[in-house]
Amino acid sequence: MKKTILLALTLLLSSALCAQNWDIDALHKVNSWDNGFVRNYNKVISKSEPYIAVGVPVAMALASWIKHDKELLKDAIYVGTSVAGAFVLTYGMKYLVDRERPYERWPDRVHPYSRESSPSFPSGHTATAFALATSLSIKYPKWYVIAPSAIWACSVGVSRMNEGVHYPSDVLAGAAIGAGCAVLNVYVNRWLNRWLFGR
Question: How far, in Å, CA of 185 to CA of 35, rounded?
């Protein structure tokens, strides 16, 4: 029995160490992409995230108000609450997990091209980007909405690694949280729409 427990603990520890090695090795590779175009593209994409994630549902709400379009307003509320839900969930998890930023933990392997004050896990930028992309794709399932949304959301995740502020596991968790919030929010918004708009 003791040998079985010892073997299980050894396997668990070795798999955790391998996972950490994979995380930092992959981050080191992405962080070292130093082509001028790639570096500038990633910086712009990373900085665009809060403006696009907030701006799209706000623009949809304004357009619905101008056009007196109740269906567009419902879509704007769905997209906006998906992004907000992902934001709240990721920032709650950040302080619960309290993971060091990669440039703090591995200063010899990761160069920060920007710095953040919050903990690392999960990536909030990636979560809200995927919440926006997924909710838009659910509401408007056309290739010309899905493709640009997916490319932008994936670019946000990669840009956060290239900037040196997130591990791949932070980005993957953020993507799962963002997409998950958008999918779950379909059901939440059915109740919200009945409450706000009646039948």
Answer: 39
Q: 3-class secondary structure for 90-136?
A: HHHHHHHHCCCCHHHHCCCCCCCCCCCCCCCCCCHHHHHHHHHHHHH
CA pair distance 139, 131, nearest whole angstrom? 12
**Contact between 102 and 167 (Cβ < 8 Å):** yes
Kindly report the number of other CB atoms within 10 A of residue 47's CB atom: 13
Per-residue pLDDT of the chain (199 residues; tens, 9 = 90+): 555 554 444 444 444 444 558 888 888 888 888 888 888 898 899 999 999 999 999 999 999 999 998 889 989 999 999 999 999 999 999 999 989 999 888 888 888 888 888 898 999 999 999 999 999 999 999 999 999 999 999 999 999 999 989 999 999 999 999 999 999 998 888 887 788 777 6
- Is the separation of the CB atoms in 126 and 160 below 8 Å? yes
Domains, in order of start, for the chain: 24-197 (1.10.606.20)
pTM: 0.85
Taking Cα atoms as reference points, which of 128, 125, 123, 53 lies closest to residue 94?
123
